[in-house]
């Protein structure tokens, strides 16, 4: 499996740090690693990925962070140019606000994800990770999300964290613009939707359930 994490470390003009959200990597990672899958890490720039939501009182976060093999992988992520999509059965776009700045326009990542999907693999994303889905086009010229049920960080959640005027676009609006049937629950409620081989979760609270849905899809 391939996990995509952000290389972007600042929330726009606020100067506040961001990156990938640790639990949105660790919670799906635990489910999939325990099922026997090996996970590689890629980021738009490669190298050390900036981390947000760094809470080691969360048992799963601590387990991931203290795993020597995976700590090494996330501190030395691969570049998109080093990835062969044929090596992977699934790709997971982890969120964290950083994703809003460097996922959507990364054509190399969109191409990798499109190929994995068209090879029969699973594409998943959680929270702001669906920013990586907005420009994925399939070989028929349609957007991957077009006509599919999807979710992600909602407009209401963006307003609740007071970043609706900081992020470069509204994730919910952009997905709808691409033809997605956007579903949502209340603030911070776990919500995961599966449509064909596309699996999306609304927020950090949905990360473990995304991992479980990916595993179910792979099996």
Automatic annotation (TrEMBL):
Molecular function (Gene Ontology), one example: glyoxalase III activity
An annotated GO BP: methylglyoxal catabolic process to D-lactate via S-lactoyl-glutathione
A Pfam family: DJ-1_PfpI
Membrane-crossing residue ranges in chain numbering: none
Record SUPFAM superfamilies: Class I glutamine amidotransferase-like
Top-level taxon of the source organism: Bacteria
Key words of the record: Lyase, Stress response
One GO cellular component term noted in the UniProt record for this chain: cytoplasm
Ranges where the DJ-1/PfpI domain occurs: 23-215
Record PANTHER family: GLUTATHIONE-INDEPENDENT GLYOXALASE HSP31-RELATED (PTHR48094:SF11), PROTEIN/NUCLEIC ACID DEGLYCASE DJ-1-RELATED (PTHR48094)
Family membership noted in the UniProt record: Belongs to the peptidase C56 family. HSP31-like subfamily.
This protein's name: Thiamine biosynthesis protein ThiJ
Lineage, highest ranks first: Bacteria, Pseudomonadati, Bacteroidota, Sphingobacteriia, Sphingobacteriales
């Amino acid at each position: 499996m391939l996990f995509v994490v952000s290389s972007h470390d600042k929330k726009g003009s606020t100067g506040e740090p961001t990156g990938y959200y640790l639990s949105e990597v660790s919670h799906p990672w635990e489910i999939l690693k325990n099922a026997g899958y090996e996970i590689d890490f890629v980021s738009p720039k490669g190298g050390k990925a900036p981390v947000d939501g760094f809470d080691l009182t969360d048992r799963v976060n601590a387990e991931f962070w203290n795993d020597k093999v995976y700590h090494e992988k996330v501190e030395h992520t691969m570049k998109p140019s080093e990835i062969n999509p044929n090596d992977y059965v699934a790709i997971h776009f982890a969120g964290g606000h950083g994703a809003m700045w460097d996922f959507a326009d990364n054509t190399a990542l969109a191409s990798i994800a499109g190929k994995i999907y068209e090879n029969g693999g699973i594409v998943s994303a959680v929270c702001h990770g669906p920013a990586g889905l907005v420009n994925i086009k399939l070989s028929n010229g349609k957007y991957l999300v077009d006509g599919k049920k999807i979710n992600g960080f909602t407009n209401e959640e963006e307003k609740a964290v007071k970043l609706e005027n900081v992020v470069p676009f509204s994730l919910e609006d952009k997905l709808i613009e691409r033809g997605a049937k956007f579903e949502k629950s209340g603030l911070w409620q776990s919500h995961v939707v599966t449509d064909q081989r596309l699996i999306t979760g609304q927020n950090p609270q949905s990360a473990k359930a995304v991992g479980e849905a990916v595993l179910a899809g792979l099996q």
